[in-house]
Amino acid sequence: MALKGIDWRSALNSFFEKAQKIKKGRRLLLISGLVFLLGGSFAWFVYMPRMQEIDRLEREIADLNQKIQTGKIWGKKLADLRNEMAQVETEFQKALKILPNEREIPSLLADISQLGVDSNLQFRLFSPGKEELRTFYVEIPVSVEVGGRFRDVILFLDKVSRMERIVNIVDISLKPNTPLAVDLITACKAVTYRFKSKEDEAKEKAAQKKK
Fold first, then answer.
1. Would residue 33 count as lying in a domain?
2. Which residues lie closer than 8 Å to 187 by C-beta, 6 or more apart?
């Protein structure tokens, strides 16, 4: 508050009047000291704080730029990972069509049965057997016995072979329903497969321990 009441113009005029009365040598020394004092004060109270502030801001800007670059890199990696996950999901869905999981087996068996009905065959037997654990998958045998004409049996086998999922028909035998009859009794085994689950692996380990 006291500094605001000072008449700086009068003070400076008084200072310069007194300085003119001082001898030249002392005057130069006084002016040099005053310049040094003012320069030092400016450097200490103005220049150095500003430079420190500039250095701090430059460090913050450099840190932010680094974070931005890191964010861009991780953003690209995240986008790549999402694309990879989408591709994996697509491949997994394709694999499920070929090798279904346990939950889809009933619908698969129903599809096989429906193909037989669509081929004008009469099912005499359709019995899933005991599952066989393999290295990476589970084998499911289904005993099938149908009645119908030879061409209908061929049509049924052709439809089964065209399924997206793997179904192998093995152990086929044909015999007339009655001597010299056109209708045949066809017995075979339809073998399909599914993914091996964690429960299957646990059962397999338990069985190995018992041995």
1. yes
2. 125, 143, 144, 145, 171, 172, 173, 174
